[in-house]
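Summary for the steering committee. One of the milestones for this cycle was to obtain a three-dimensional model of the protein with 2-deoxy-2-amino glucitol-6-phosphate bound, which we needed before selecting residues for the alanine scan. The sequence and ligand used are listed below.
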Amino acid sequence: MCGIAGYIGKKKAAELLLKSIKNLEYRGYDSVGMVTSSEGKIHIRKGAGKVDEVNAKLDFPSMPGTVGIAHTRWATHGKPSDRNAHPHISYSGKIAIAHNGIIENYLELKESLQGIEFKSDTDSEVLAHLIEKNYQGNLLKAVQLSLKMVIGTYAICVINTNSEEIVVARNGSPLAIGIGKGENFVGSDVSAFVAHTKKVIYLNDFESAEIRTNSVSIFNNEGKKISREPKTIDWDIEKAQKGGYKHFMLKEIHEQPQVVRDSISIPVFFPMKERPSRIFIVACGTAGYAGLVGKYIIEKSARIPVEVAYASEFRYAEPIIGKDDLFIAISQSGETADTLAALRLAKQKGAHTLAIINVMDSTIARESDAVIYTRAGPEIGVASTKAFISQLVVLYKLAAELSGKKYDLTTIPQKIDAILSQEEKIKETAKKYFLAHNFLYIGRNLNFPIALEGALKLKEISYIHAEGYASGEMKHGPIALVSDEVPTVAIAPRDSTYSKIVSNMQEIKARNGKIIAVASEKDGEIAKHADDILPIPTTEEDLYPLLTVVPLQLLAYYIADLRECDIDKPRNLAKSVTVE
Ligand code: AGP
């Protein structure tokens, strides 16, 4: 996820664009760049670092011209560096592009551009050369023709030396056009230009637009001109950055269908040729619960023993690990101190190391033998949601690679959408329970890690004590906690352990315990055993964790919101725990 911005009008583009990408910096902040077009020339300045750092070195506002584009990056292909920063310039130096998204077939496209010198390691640069190659005097047509060859996601801004227009297009990544008076703006979202205009046109997938000082023309995927009335937004900058959601966490929960779509095509690989004799998955918090799901699916499919450990325990437990073993570190931030220490210990003991990381070039990524980057984009809310989902997708793909089993993840995005459409019902359920002081979360088998994750979501943002348990454990102590003041969330999809979890629910009901059941929408039976139901679509049994976690994220969110907690920045917590 990156931030792209554009301006065309009568004012100095660079000054406006600097403010725009500052407002978009939450979308990506490892490198930044800007191009302007003036007097038949393209002027470019770009570098690794945050906007203010790079601007202090390169002085963006001194760039000439009243047309320009800018970009703040969240690296997916190619480390954060000066050369990999956007915008990218075509081989003639006459066309510049800024891109947000992932070009899946960039290597094939690169093949078709033999003889052209590439200056970066990014997938995006291929677009600049492709557009140049297809340019016959009409920039819009060159962009439309080039994008027909692209497989992947994009929001793209293109300018050339003639300074008369900005061409934009999108598929899968957001793009908004701000309609001004004698000037027009572009942004990944309206926070790029809401300070200048509240009139906005949103592009839909496979649409493109030609933006001039006094006109905006929209084209559908056949290149036919279409009309679209601008909307008027009443957002301020902060609301715009949250996409209109009240908190980043809620926005990120809603981004999960797209995150799954983006993650399905993540290439997965191992740092060792031979099959590991054992796999260790080591992480903290939510990442650790993703690892526990990974244990169940890898052991079930590939029949390789998987040991999961809290990194803070692993590092002091004198673990028995060696050269035939694979150590997998999972971390959203890639900077968690305990996970980094555990990785170093595993390497010291000769294990092969693989990291599943969301932040490119982070410390854990750099120190692992191999790294697979999740595609969640920047996760701003301290409570991890979309990164967790992307970690799960990577673990399913690793299990498939090890076992040859095929997991069909393609229907998961629409099934998550279906759960998100039940948001009001989940909010109503939250209203019944937000004053409770203690919660139990129970699940079996693959749903046990989700019980742990659901409990963590609740406690870290609502400050309510919540415990996740393997539901078969209830009789071994926790059932003593059951009363009508301690609600239990039971994760009970129609899977092979369904009858067992129903028995546990009956035991709880028999002791006046209130039950909220996450259950299959077609399950007519569950209503007899639960006070409230959070329905989910049915799916292949192994894939339920990708669905059952979503209502728990929303339940925790709405309970915390009713308790007026600081959801994006909960007390005592940090997004990345870089100390022991
Ligand atoms: C998750 O919601 C928490 N914020 C926390 O448990 C987090 O998962 C943990 O600190 C690990 O962080 P990492 O993924 O960046 O390593």
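Key point for the committee: Residues 284-287, 331-333, 336, 339, 382-384, 460, 576-577 surround 2-deoxy-2-amino glucitol-6-phosphate (CB under 6 Å).
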